[in-house]
Amino acid sequence: MSSAAEQFLRDAATKSADLVHREIIRRNMDSYEAAHQRGRSRIKNWEAARRRCQEIKREAIEHLDKYLLQFEEKVIAHGGHVFWAANGDEACAYIKDLAVSRNVRTVVKSKSMVTEEIHLSPVLEKVGIKVWETDLGEFIVQLRNEPPYHIVTPAMHLNRQQIRELFREKLGEDIADADPQKLVALARRKLREAFFAAEMGISGANFLVADSGAIAISTNEGNGRLSTSLPRIHVAVTGIEKIVPRLEDLGTLWPVLATSGTGQPITTYSTLIGGPRRPSEADGPEEFHVVLLDNGRSSLLANAEEREVLTCIRCGACLNICPVYRNIGGHTYNTTYQGPIGSVLTPHLRGNDFQHLAQASSLCGACSSVCPVNINLHHHLLHNRRDAAASGNAKASERAQFRLWRTAMLHPGLYRLGGWMMRRSLRLLYGMGLAGTVFDPMRAWSRKRTPMPLPAKSFRTRWKEGLEKEEQGRGQVGNK
Amino acid sequence: MATSNPSREAILARIREGLRTPAPPMEAKTLDGPIFEPVQNPLERFQQECKANLMECQVTADASGSAQVLAQVLNSLPAGEVFLQDDPVLRRLMENSGSARQLQWSSQGGPAETAQATVTLADALIAQTGSIFVSAACGGRGASVVAPCHIVYATARQLVPDLVTALRTATAQGRLDNHSFACIISGSSRTADIEKILVQGAHGPMRLVVILETNS
Predict the structure, then answer these.
(1) Chain A environment of B18 (Cβ under 8 Å)
(2) What is the DSSP string of B61-89?
(3) Which of A42, A268, A272 should we substitute to test contact with B (largest number of B Cβ atoms within 10 Å)?
């Protein structure tokens, strides 16, 4: 087992037993669930909306080269720059060199999971650039020096008292009653200084619109607006898969993204940016750069079976509904993208060390049932399990157990004998009070739970008896 | 300055190579009918959605009514400068409002950090979502986000039924060919990042006021 997998199991065990954490997440998820249901009821035909979004994103991915080139041509024609980065290092180096060459001292960032993926902030901080996360949730986790907990709500794991404590310690002001309104006002005051001081704004993009050469950003707070309006340089960092063919496609994608993300009919600011400010415009950055990141996405594209994973619009709905995420929380995954989509995607982006995440699922299919672009997520988790087994990364003990099981399945007499021995030995063991100890082969289950009751007869016997009874029953009915 | 792009061709080649293998076909499914409820009465729907978005929509009959509403809104704000999109329509409206505030026009640059309010026009109003559609032509980028109060002066003739219509029109008019920025704004700035409790005025305006004139 890889050290990442061992760490995952340890953290999952700790987090799922943390009652304060459970309560915070339960309240957040209940609130989301109610808003999500209300939002869905506002859309006349939700299934048709999902289907339309699936078709749009699929068309984009199936013609990815064509639409990326169309997007690039437009951006350049509007005076912008497009940089194609094969990996995170190339993307970070481009942005760092750009910042250094333009004497940038302060950067304001609006929320971007891709910049988390490539670990951009430490690279800029290393050359002495101050980086401010300006989304409130991101700002909070930045002050705590930890990664986002959730792709949409980065500080979901904290309650107001914890945030009050954090602000008191890091910002030097105490909001005695921990009133969210006052906490937000404090963050607004602090970040406003940064917005007006920064020379560079860095954003992500929810969509890249091919026919317009524009990036589309959805935000509620307005930090994305300020980060892309006030500094003299704007850099948008985004994955190549964010492309959509036409501007009018956003007429469906925007409401569906907002409904799935937060339950809103549309986010407060649905922004389109297609270049630096024009000479006739009152304000806006003088330079506009788009960094198109591959970082494993083209390899995923080549995997036709899993290609549809690239159609994800990062709404977070699959995280919110996932029973595993709800119990172990976002940080346990130790990945940029958490929950079902993260478990599917991360092994493709970061390699075999994350194959264990395919097991972080009950395969209940709840994630697939809410996905707004109909990605068959639990099916892809099964694919990843299969690939992990095929790559020979399974534990030696697991491989031995499956070999044993295979032999038993091919020899019914052996299977019967094994079942008989297991029932008897477990009854003896449990009778001696050794359930859940190292002597118990069912320890993985019973060390933290009541042992499962042992049946008196094997399934095979009970099945046979049931069939005989059924036969007798039929006979009696036939005799009447 | 041309951007040096050493990985561009390699990425495009990988994409083309990857797409040689076709993806499994989509599940056949026919879903008839409109996705969104068609908008029957755009003015009524717009007002309803504005309310849901916690926006203030003040319907006026004519220009003098609009000037009066503008004066009322400005009077309710703390002392300080007002930033306006430099447009003859707004110059007239401001003059008729009788406000004595210090003014800054978009022809002089973007809004100052200390601006108490911004006043702009809109490219369109969207009934389906109660949104205003602005572009860089509406006083620039900061005009709709820097000050604590954003006031939009629009007419009922600018109403379009839904988002798709608004975006199709924007494409047909080349809005993003002619301007570097556009935004569909559906309420004041807000956050629910702390315990999912809604707080207005996260970084941008705490108030978004639409003065909607019906008889222009």
Answers:
(1) 298-299, 301-303, 307
(2) SSHHHHHHHHHHHHHTSPS--EEE---HH
(3) A268
A/B interface, count of CB pairs below 8 Å: 290
pLDDT digits (tens, 9 = 90+) for A48-76: 999 999 999 999 999 999 999 999 999 99
Q: How far is CA A43 from CA A47, A313, A376, B33, B128, in A?
A: 9, 18, 22, 12, 11
Residue range(s) of every CATH 3.40.50.10420 domain in chain A: 43-299
Task: With CB atoms and an 8 Å threshold, state whether A271 touches B192.
Answer: no
Q: How confident is the model at residue B105 (pLDDT cuts 50, 70, 90)?
A: very high
Fold of the domain built from segment(s) A43-299: Rossmann fold (3.40.50)
B150 sits in the region (left: phi over 0; alpha: psi -120 to 50; else beta) called beta
Token pair belonging to A469: 């009874």
Q: Please tell me whether the interface predicted TM-score (ipTM) of this complex is above 0.90.
A: yes
| Architecture, CATH, for domain B41-213 | 3-Layer(aba) Sandwich (3.40)
Q: Rounded to a whole number, what is the distance in Å from the CA of A315 to chain B's nearest CA?
A: 15
According to the model, what pLDDT value does residue A480 have? 43
Judged by CB atoms closer than 8 Å, whether chains meet at B195 and A180 is answered as: yes
Closest to A228 in 3D by CA, of A160, A51, A219, B45: A219
Q: Is B155 on the interface with A (CB under 8 A)?
A: no
DSSP alpha helix (H) spans, A432-458: 443-446
**What is the enclosing helix (H) or strand (E) of B195?**
none
Alpha-carbon distance values, A183 to A163, A177, A221, A380 (Å):
8, 10, 14, 41
Is the torsion defined by CA of A339, A341, A344, A350 positive or negative? Answer: negative
